Amino acid sequence: MSEPVLRLDGLTKRFGGLTAVDRVSLSFAPGTLHAVIGPNGAGKTTLFNLISGLLPADGGRIFFRGRDITGLKPHEVSRLGIKRTLQVKSVFPRLSVAENLWITAQAKQRFLNPLRSAGRYRETREKVERTLDQIGLAALASRAAGTLSYGDVALLEIGMAIISDPELLLLDEPICGMSPAETERAVEKIRALALEVDIIIIEHDMQVVFGLASDITVMAQGGVLASGTPQQIAEDERVREAYLGRPEDEDYVEEEAHA
Amino acid sequence: MITRARVERVLFLAFAAFMLAVPWLVPALTNPFWVDVIAEILIWSLFAASVNLLFGYVGLLSFGQALYFGFGMYGVAIATTDLGLSFWPAFIFGILAAVVMAWVTGIFAVRLTWHYFAIITVVFSLIFYFLALSMKWLTGGDDGISFTLPPTFSIGGTSLSFTSATFQYFFILATVSLCFYLKYRLIESPLGKAFMAIRDNDVRASLIGLNTYRIRLVAFLIAGFLAGVSGALFAFFGRYASATYMFYQVSGEGVVWAIVGGAGTLLGPIVGTSLFIVIRELVSTHWEHHSLIVGVMAILVVIFAPRGIVGLWRDSLGRVFEPHGRPAEYELRTEP
Question: Which of B189, B205, B334 sits opposite A118 (nearest CB)?
């Protein structure tokens, strides 16, 4: 087996008395779309926050392509090619759609020229135009991102992920809050993206997860409950009991509705 | 066709023509002392621009910019009196003093944001205000330092200096214009876009790979530079430096000018500063409580026109020329 793109070794995060992420050891194989699921409070987003450097870990280590990245700052992690989206859709609201993409593409430059006009970076501009076409937001390029509909913001987020040339993409509930039509569009984009980039996705919509992912990890109460192929997960007794089997869980109800 | 961009360009050219004609036009129309008032407005506009760069473009509200203004001022005064430097070295010395001070304080200040940042900038400026008051041997304490103006240029036997009101005006106009031009270039540049990205969403900015600490520090240094230039100019203009200009009330005025004019707009600080200094000049001779007007206007603008006078103006232009265009106001959407 080739070297994992991301390896977590006993990763731990405590908030006061609560252990949000509890000695998580996971390996993410390259060339896969890996979904992380689990009930609310299972520690999925905290896991992403640890990987992307937004939170310092209390224990354990993170390896990206064999390199120890534990303790790096968010911008350092980002410059290695690990990009992420946030659960609460999060763009630059007063910048235009095109500017959002522009600064995302340009951000990896160490030197940000203070005097050259941003419009004169031809390569970046062309990249922005390509990405606008790719995500279907070309018509809204000059709109302030804060005035977009929720689904369009989510598409912009995906565009920002694409334009940053990621090597590993962490998507935190990318389709949360989307209409069925928007969901379909976004899932298509993610599927196309997964052909080029390794993706780890947190998602609640079971139909989407089982339709997209080649590997699934189930988290519960900060720990890893099970990890395997979609089929293994669907058949796993512990998963059924702890996660899918609880009738009051809204994800369960959702899954039933889709079934 | 009349478009919004053309209207704005014509207005800008008219404004530029007026500024160039001030030394002849103003004495012809009214009391010549208004030439000096306009020069003073230019200097303080640059100070407001320093606040605006931090607040309007990087999202850091500094209540301590007077510190760097004061350092620019004292730098010039100390350089000309104690060090015996001529005009240009003294000018540069003043600006450098402000930038170095911004660097020393910025290292600590930009680790914080929002109210913590506002508080630490006030604290720094108060510390140095009281230090300046007590270090009489260097700063002259309450009395400040008065100095004799060195000539700006001397070629052969002739020299040009601030003693000529017209030269003084044009020197200030040229320096302030150059700084505003640099700020304009900055805003349009990659670094400027990074500033605005951090202003809008600093967590996201760090996730796309921007070093938010370093970029905020750079912004703080540039703001210190702008405040330093305005302080140095003001020292030459008044032939005087005093700790009173380092007091936080001066910082607060800069904040009010920038916000009322329009934070996050290039020319907002000029509009806000002009408005309040003209009001001060017109009203203060008749009524000592003119700052009440300032307060009421600041409150009204913050509540009814959060993007200031320039924002109001843009919105109304937008309604005239693009009635069905994009909305000028945006909403923050954080949840579905």
Answer: B189
Domain count, chain B: 1
- Per the model's pLDDT, the better-predicted residue between B169 and A154 turns out to be B169
- Answer yes or no: are the C-beta atoms of A137 and A99 closer than 8 Å: no
Question: Does residue B336 belong to any structural domain of this protein?
Answer: no
So what's the ipTM on this one?
A: 0.82
Span of A32-36, A247-251, B128-132, B193-197 with lowest mean pLDDT:
A247-251
Write out residues 58-117 of A within 8 Å (CB-CB) of B: 73-75, 78-79, 83-84, 86, 88-95, 99, 102-104, 106-109, 112-117
Q: Chain A closest CA to B265's CA: distance in Å?
A: 13
For chain A, how far is it from start to end, CA to CA, in angstroms? 35
The reply to whether B329 falls in a domain is no
Alpha-carbon Rg for chain A in angstroms: 19
Structural domain for B303, as ranges: 4-321
Give chain A's residues under pLDDT 50.
Answer: 249, 253, 259
Cα–Cα distance between A92 and A87 in angstroms, integer? Answer: 15
* Residue A42 pLDDT: 86
- CB-CB neighbors (< 8 A) of B197 in chain A: 92, 95, 103, 107
Specify the DSSP class assigned to residue B57: I
B53, B326, B333, B334: best mutation site toward chain A, by most A Cβ within 10 Å? B333
Does residue B333 lie within any of the structural domains? no
B61-82 burial string, b = 16+ CB within 10 Å, else e?
Answer: bbbbbbbbbbbbbbbbbbbbbe
Quick one: pLDDT band at residue B332, thresholds 50, 70, 90? very low
- A11 sits in which H/E element: strand A6-15
Chain B contact probe: residue of A72, A112, A158 with most B CBs at under 10 A: A112
CATH code of residue B240: 1.10.3470
Tens of pLDDT, residue by residue over B69-82, are 999 999 999 999 88
